[in-house]
Amino acid sequence: MSQFSSEDEAELQYLLRQLLKSTKDRISGAPSIECAEEILLHLEETDKKFHNYELVRYLRQHVDRSLGALVEAETELGAGGDAGASAHDIHAVTRRTRDSAEYKQMMQTLKNTMSLVVESLINKFEEDQLRKEETYRDNLPGASEGRFNDNCSDSDSSFNHVSKGKQLQALAEQLDSSQPKEVRWEALQKLCCAPPSDVLSCETWNSLRTSLSAVLDDRDPDLILKFFAKTSSSSPFNLTREIYSSLAKSLEGYFLSHKLSLPIGSDGIDVTRPDISRLLKQMRLINDFQKEMPSFWIRHPEKYMEEVIESTFSLLSVHPDLGLASPGTEKALEPVYLLALLDIKATWFNKWMHSYYSRAVIFRLLERKYKSLIVAAVQQCLQHLSDCEHRSPQTSGSSQWSIYTRSELEYAFFVHSLCVLGKVLIYTNGRKLFPIKIRKHKDLYSLTDLVVTLINIMYQHPQPPRTDPSHTVSLAPRSLVTELLWMLCEQTESAAECIYQSPVIETLLAPLIRLLNGEQVSPAGSLTHIADVLARIASTDRGLALFLNDKSLDLSSSKGHIIVQFTQRLLDKDLPSLGRWEMSPAVCGAFLFACRQMYNTCEGLQILRPYGLHSCIAAALKEVPRVVSPISGPSLIWEETLQDSLLHFAATPKGLLLLQSTGALDHCVAYMYSRFIKKLQVSRCEKFGYGVMVTQVAATAPGVMALLNSGYVQELVVKLWSVLECGREDLRVVHPKSTPMDPIDRSCLKSFLALVNLLSSGASVWALLRGQPLPQREAYPLREVPSTIADLMDRLIAVDSDAKINSLFNYEQSHTFGLRLLCVLCCDLDSFLLLESQYALCSMLLLRQKENVTEPAEAQGQLILDRLSVERNHLLVRVCAVGGPSERRLPPRALQEGPDPYPWPMFLSYPSAPPQCYTLDAAMLPQSKQGKILTSKCAGTHARTHARTHARTHAGTHLWVIMNMNVFIMCELFPRYGRSLGLLKDEGTEELALLLKHSHLFLAAQRATTHPSILTATDWLAATLFLMMAGDGERARRWLVDFSSLLCSAFLWPARMHSSVHLPAPVAASGIPPVYWCTAHYVEMLLKAEVPLVHSAFRMSGFTPSQICLQWLNQCFWNYLDWPEVCHYVSTCVLMGPDYQVYVCVAVLKHMQPDILLHTQAQDLQVYLKVSQRPHRPPHLTSPCCTSTQGVCQYGAVQGLGGVLCMGGSYLSGQTHR
To answer: The BROMI N-terminal domain covers which part of the protein (predicted)?
Structure first.
């Protein structure tokens, strides 16, 4: 079918009309006819509904009817009988079809028919339009007068009663500047009543726009401004651009021709004056355009946006020549003054600089043509500084609201310039505009010169000329400059080029140095702002290094020392040149915050510790009055400031020891808990919450007891129980809660990780659970919520009765949660020994395992394989099979697919050995003899260099009796491990027990005080030496006695330094071991310098490297490294020095970096580090410490880390002379 009937033409006409209605919005939004044609031509590419239009469907059916048979014939001919056709065949068929006579006839017929349809539509549209106009003209009185009505609209307007083009042409002629004012006014009124779309789409718009620009020079341009505002809101961007350019050029010409001047002296500019009011209205409209245009100019060609920006810069760069403009003489009023009055903080420029699309054009124009704008802004900052230095600052402006004095206009221009410069400086291309040439400056003006100028402005009087209570602080020079400097500090590149320069830092520290030297500083009120800027600088890594290590000033100490010295003297009120108000708590708190950015890092605390700032803060805290009264608000704020400053010492291991020594640990932790439950931000420079600090505090016994006393532990347990068992009370139960598929549901993961962080350290587990029996009641009410760790273990872990099972709403999920938590706890061998000796958890788990059979009454019942039985089997194998990653096999925690879902045997006996498949055969470990060789060399070295001492004592026997259960468990597990390695031939149990007893008695004689509540009484080094000496207990005892004379023993033998007489009394009483506050401290410091990604991963996860390293070092890497590597670790630290403890830990963490980053993203880093069974070294390497020392020793040699670590500060005095 190639011909169209009359019915087909009518149907096509209807379908075409429907298509035009559907695309009306797209076509009406086109700025020109050409654009409308482009929209229709590319409608298939831009409209998702294109193939659903009825016209498109009709045409497709017509093509199928006309060419269907031809295409099928060509396809069969081209395929040649094949099942499929290639792309080449398809193109060939298409080409032959388009060349055929049928296709040409169809296209010609379709074109002719569509032409007739379109022509018919046009004629019908014109008839309908004329009919509407006649009807409207008959019904409208006064229409013959040719005036427009005010109630006209875009859709149905009285403007259509005459020819649009002729009418607008006539209006353009009437608006010409040669016409009388009355004629122009009447024509403008008519134009304002016309629909903007009709005005903008007419052919005479260009001439009309020229006439409208001339009208702007009249005395009362309100009507034309209203027309521009109305037109711009409904016009496309290209026409808005023309309107904006017209306004800008009109203003530019006015300023150049009239040459207005700024007032002199006390005179001011009255904004109600007609000429000034007219200029302000035009500038206000321009400013509104400036703020709105960035929201849609990205959708248009760049040349439109460039024209808008260039016309703006051209207007702002107008400088009418009135002669020399020196202070006290006449100066021209420039457009930028009016723009600053309307938008003093340059909001328009901030919006323009937001996207790269416009920012690139701005910087290109500034560099090529309009750098004078940057010069003028800098010149205004210099002028403001000069005015502040040579005259007394004005604290108030004109008493009349409508009059602005010259100083107020200059100040508005200064604030506007400052905001513009701040946005320019944070971008690289903006900083490339410098250096610039400044009037009255011989040399080029650099970035550093500008920042120094801004800092000097910050030192001047802070009040703006016109004191408005709502804007006084936000418009004060100090606040503005401080905000700008903060902005520069946040960007790495801008901070490096603008802030981290010696002249800038010297200018910031100059007032502090003068005050330390007893000189007067005027004004001293800028100290708070100086401290805020210094804090922002110190909060970045490069800024911190600049403060701690750079000594470019003419002083013997670094910049950080100057800040700490000044803060210390502020706290002691030892600055005679400062008044009482200037040493207020607000100033002291600001500088304490700056110091906090340094001492809450390991390297910062290491350098600033000699100043004893923690003691000064603690002394100031004791002087704060404790009386609570209605007027004690400032005292309470000062007390919280001091507590917060002391609390941040706990961010590092050594800082926690210093905090403990002040006696304010409990108060600071209570303060932290009060902010923690309110979910308050740590500080304005901290990106994370209190998670890391809580974990750091929980690593020690005193810290975890402080958390317990503050209520944090109870809050954590109650919150966990609410999400695990209760659920949200405010949630309506419309559908049942879905059954969790993961062992630990996502809703409980946060509480689980918080518990792991709290109980990660063996010392914290001993402090919370030692001597705490499980409740073991006959009934557990459903509404009873546990409040302690012991209660939680009783309800979730020791589920050994029907009453406990029935008290759980989600028994399987809750018990799995408890078993997973117990698995993490038992990875710390100290924690495992306490839990097993006190609660007999293994026996309880075995009993539950044996009861989990199909027929409990019969002995031959088959074991049920479920989540709990598999979890219990994994846990029992983990705690009973000792060894490194390649020395034991742990069963999986999930069933496998296939006929045998769990081929691993169940562990059903304790304390006997686990099934053989979980441990390696001794024949597979021939390399274990290497440990014996290394140990013999170590023992010979000590025998040659130190006199053997043989001290025996029976003091402390009662402690040995208390801990004999732990020794029994050790003597059951670890000799078995030695026999599997081929190190022990006989039982070895009695020999190990005797060695541990002698070691305990030997160390008890060196303890000044005893703290059984926090004493772990587990000597892992002695157990390690027992295996290294092949079970020779006497030889191991003599080695330990000789080894105790070395300073290295204080770190490699943690049990020796517990409450030791060789430590100062406060340190010994703190219960914090040197391995934590010294070794772990340096691990964190070195990790941040060498492996920053791992250090950041720990902070993001809320965990600390010191916690996992403390566990590794306390138990000599047992269950984490294979036996040969354990021997390498002990031997290396003995022969090379205790600083190799640090290197080993850093090397292991560096090797684990990919996995650490992966598990940080998965939010289970703590669990991975505790329970991971992946080897911590590549299989082909012998030892991680041997591979690490090649690079890390060089760092230690440069930094002197080994010597500092061995000395241990002043806490281990007298050890080197024994």
So the answer is: 12-134
DSSP 927: G
Which residue intervals of 917-1030 are DSSP H helices? Answer: 929-945, 957-962, 964-981, 989-1004, 1020-1028
Q: Which amino acid is at 373?
A: L
**Residue pair 948/1038 in contact by the 8 Å Cβ criterion:** yes
The 10s digit of each residue's pLDDT in 794-809 is: 999 999 888 899 888 8
Q: Tell me how far apart the alpha carbons of residues 440 and 546 are, in angstroms, rounded to a whole number.
A: 34
Average per-residue pLDDT for the chain: 80
Residue ranges of alpha helices (H) inside 1071-1215 are 1074, 1081-1090, 1092-1101, 1105-1114, 1123-1136, 1139-1151, 1153-1161, 1165-1171, 1184-1199, 1201-1207
Q: Could you write out the DSSP letters of every residue in 841-891?
A: HHHHHHHHHHH-BS-TTSTTPPBP-SHHHHHHHHHHHHHHS---TTTB-PP
Residue-level pLDDT at 580: 66
Of 1076, 1111, 1097, 1082, residue with least CA distance to 1154? 1097
Query: Could you tell me where the DSSP H helices lie in 234-266?
Result: 237-258
Q: Are 996 and 1014 in contact (CB under 8 A)?
A: no
- Distance, CA of 424 to CA of 488 (rounded, Å): 10
Distances (CA, A) of 813 to 113, 723, 775, 901: 74, 12, 22, 21
Q: Decide: pTM greater than 0.90.
A: no
Tell me the C-alpha distance between 504 and 860, whole Å.
84
CA distance to 276, 294, 337, 710, per residue, from 343 (Å)? 16, 16, 10, 51
Q: Which of 588, 637, 597 is nearest to 617 (CA)?
A: 588
CA–CA distance, 695 with 1160 (Å, rounded to integer): 16
Helix (H), strand (E) at residue 270: strand 268-270
Q: Which two tokens stand for residue 868?
A: 């709990």
Q: What share of the chain has pLDDT > 90, as a percent? A: 37
Q: What are phi and psi of 1007, to 5 degrees?
A: -95, 130
Look at residues 369, 374, 379, 371 and name the one whose alpha carbon lies nearest to residue 331.
379
3-state secondary structure 634-685: HHHHHHHHHHHHHHHHHHCHHHHHHHHHHCCHHHHHHHHHHHHHCCCCCCCC
Q: Give yes or no for a contact between 814 and 786, defined as CB atoms under 8 angstroms apart.
A: no
Cα–Cα distance for residue pair 604/1042, rounded to 1 Å: 37
Query: What is the amino acid identity at position 127?
Result: E
Q: How far is CA 326 from the centre of its chain?
A: 49
Report the percentage of the chain scoring pLDDT > 70: 79
